[in-house]
Amino acid sequence: MLRYAFRLHRWGMIGYGVVLFAGVYAQAAAYSQVAGTTVASRAAFAHAMGLTESQLSFFLPLPYRIDTLAGYVQWRAYGWLSVALMIWAIAAAAGAVRGNEDRQLVDYWLSAGVSRLRLVVSRLAAFALAALVVVVAGGLGALIGAASSAPLDLGRLAGQSLALWVLAVAFFALCCLIAQFTASTRGAQAAGAAVLVVLYLLDVLARTQTSFDGLSWVSPFRWYDATNVLGPGGHLSGPGLLLCAAVILVAGGLAALAFRRRDLRGPLFGRPAAEVRSRGRKPSPLLSWPLARLLYRQRWILAGWTLGIAVMAVLMVSIAPGSIDSLINLPGMRALLTHGQGGDPYRAFIASYWFGLAPLLLAALAVHLVSTWSADDTEGILGSELSTPRHRWAVVLERGLLAVVGIAVAVAVGSLLAAVTAAGIGHTLDPAGVLRASWLLVPFALTFAAVGAAGGAFWPRAVVGVLGVVAFFSFLVWQLAPLMKWPSSIANLSVFQLYGSPLLSGVFWNGLWAMLAIVLAGFGLAAIQMQRREVDQ
Amino acid sequence: MTSAVRISGLTKDYGAGRGLFDLDLHVPEGEIFGYLGPNGAGKTTTIRMLMGLAHPTRGSASIFGADCWSEAVEVKRQVGYVPGEPPQFGGLRGRQIIAYLGAMAGGVDQGRVKQLSERLQLDLSRRYREYSSGNKKKLMLVLAFMHRPRLLILDEPTAGLDPLNQQEFSAMVREARQQGVTVFLSSHVLSEVEHICDQVGIIRAGRLVNVSSLEDLHEIRMHRVEVEFAGEVPVEAIRRAEGVDDVSAENHRVRCIVRGSFEPLMGAIAGAHVVNLTSHEPSLEEAFLAYYAGAPAEEATRC
Fold this sequence. Notes:
Order of helices and strands of chain A: HHHHHHHHHHHHHHHHHHHHHHHHHH
CATH architecture of the largest domain in chain B: 3-Layer(aba) Sandwich
Strand content of chain B: 25-35%
Oligomer: heterodimer
Strand content of chain A: under 5%
CATH superfamily of the largest domain in chain B: P-loop containing nucleotide triphosphate hydrolases
Structural class of chain B: alpha/beta
Number of domains of chain B: 2
Radius of gyration of chain A: 24 Å
CATH class of the largest domain in chain B: Alpha Beta
Order of helices and strands of chain B: EEEHEEHEHHHEHEHEEHEHEEHEHH
Distance between the termini of chain B: 26 Å
Number of strands of chain B: 14
Largest sheet of chain A: none
Number of strands of chain A: 0
CATH topology of the largest domain in chain B: Rossmann fold
Largest sheet of chain B: 6 strands, mixed
Shape of chain B: globular
Largest interface: A-B, 35 and 42 residues
Number of helices of chain A: 26
């Protein structure tokens, strides 16, 4: 049972293992470029970052000894990785509890004589093992990234990894408990995400406002933040570890109790009210119209991404002034920030922060859309659609149009809010530049959708993982190449180079033509392959 | 009579001897054709090629004269389809799925949907993932029947249905036939098709081994029978009875196989004090193997 449960986590484990390894490695390797190589420059960097801590506290814990490589890795890498890993914990718990019930795997396990308690314990243990592999991969990234400059203390790194691991398992147990109260995988994911946001906000608020200190101790993120063992002189928080361990035991135990009391595929208490309300309700007329029916089916995905992108746009732009005021005084930073911007560091900061992150978010949205198309292919929905008198190319056309509309709406909302937020803090952006940087995001994200549509016609299951890895590593190369002074031959390997930096330096026309060519070729190949391929296989 | 389905030399070779080979078949318009075979024989592969979901390696298939692959859209205007494996529509509700797929098929006749769902006792307000496997099958049946197609292609349509709904389904198929609809129905259960089909094709290991009328099916059909007697056992009379084979006697029990009619057996045991008689129909594969006594598929084809 444990082996099988572990196997169900393998793709998440591999994906997050790669992300943690690359993410921690990148931060460790880039430290000298960011903070300089002398004691004085690193002290100045630490001082400047200290001034921005309230703005950055939305994303990162308060900095501790970031004048050292170990302190920087702990702050910059292990700080945000806690949130990234918790997103996996939510998805994994929803899949373990609700997803496996929807797929009727749990029916088989229970009918094979596996007790409900054993099932819960096995799933917890399997995730703990998978999370251990991921955390070790992150630790390896830190060791390798730091090896050339200042090797890290292995014991301290193990302590930091332990804190992250226990936090991930605690969150998984908590989400397993939450999932007992919901009736669907999506409901479990939404409820888990809501709890994560609340607990994270409690921690974030306490980072800068002492009035939240007492309340924030209910948040496991706070317990994790209490550990700063990687930095010199830091310590491993015993109470934090014990509290996480207590959550694992209590939430895991309550999840097992709740699981014993409820029906499979049912929530712990009653039926959802929506079921009662839905009786007699007519289906949405949108389901009858081409494109609208696909938009209707994907409405929650598109709404979720649009909301997420909007929130990130507001956050990124709103931290601009404080960050710039601190960074501008660092040696070399003024030149870096104002390079090619006509001397306006605010535009440069927003360009590098928001329009530096937005392509990654939109690429992720495109990959998510590709994953829904792959799911339609492999779950028999495409077969059902093609059992109707429908041209196969129309399926590809409709998917392409869905991607255009979904991405365009997310871009429009994100950019509009970025511009409004910038104006709100007194730094009006150049409207032409924002428009340029925004509309170019559409063909950029569509390149991922087009490649996914074409690849999905051949390998519907593999294409999502491959695209995700390509997007992530392309982003890393795009971000790190200027910092690490990598040659252009390596920098040009990144797909993100096609987007360029249109807010600052205009449209990169060669990149635009290349993106349009990829979009046309990708969807064209997908349409041709759709005409020829077999489905439901 | 024109052909609703015409299949010529249809082959789908998956390698290692798996697939469908050199299938020749024609189903006249207005007939109910039962496509019988054990699991893995190639029934679903045939149907997937008829529906234009899979390429033939060679050969061709047409429906009402239109090629199943190159004129797939035209074909599907005339076809209602129940897949063997229900798709996974997740959280969509039954009526949403009908609106979604119905619009693709040219619109939904709400009255017809209501009539079919009531007849099959299907609650369309529930989410698909909450449906039992039987209810999922019912939804597939509603989707297949709701457009009043000229041809119904049904891949194991009664799998998961309870006996009452199986009867209802049989009635729906008969009514469709009365309205001139052709039905291509696959199954691995002999008794399921014999009551409603005009003709039956039997497929085994990827090859069509027999196409016969309903009457000829009785040659294949058999029952395993066990008779328990209170007194003397008329074992010799049973052995002499026509259509009774493989007779074994133990204590006061006789076990045997009965092919075709039960009358010879009933005649043989008449007068004896029978305290119990049980009969069950073996699986199609078992019946098939017993009928052809393990002959290879190529040999069986010649029968």
